[in-house]
Amino acid sequence: MHYGNWNDGWDSWWWMAVMMIVFWGGLIWIAVALTRRGNHTAHPQTTVPSPPTRQDPDEILAERFARGEIDSDDYPSA
């Protein structure tokens, strides 16, 4: 009974090793890409913050009065 040569296919072991590395590398790449896709705030360098604008003191008082932080005694009426 002849079972064949035991060395059949062993000359392509390097091809199988390369494909295994490509396979696992691809899975890791997909996992990282999907993880980063849902987290847009992780990269603050991609968004440029606008410079702060200075408000008029009367506008600040009007906003604080509207929010209820100050009452009518503290809010000067013209």
Describe the overall structure:
The structure is a single chain. By secondary structure, the chain is mostly helical. The protein contains 2 helices and no strands. The chain is rod-shaped and about 100 Å long. The mean pLDDT is 78.
TL;DR of this structure?
This protein is mainly α and 78 residues long.
Quickly list its features.
mainly alpha, 46% helix, single chain, 2 helices
E-strand count:
0
- What's the tally of helices? 2
List the helices and strands in order: HH
Q: Which structural class best describes the helix and strand composition?
A: mainly alpha
Give the radius of gyration: 33 Å
Indicate the mean pLDDT: 78
End-to-end CA span: 110 Å
Shape: rod-shaped
How much helix, percentage-wise, in residues?
Answer: 40-55%
Strand content: under 5%
Q: Detail the poorly predicted runs.
A: none
Sheet with most strands: none
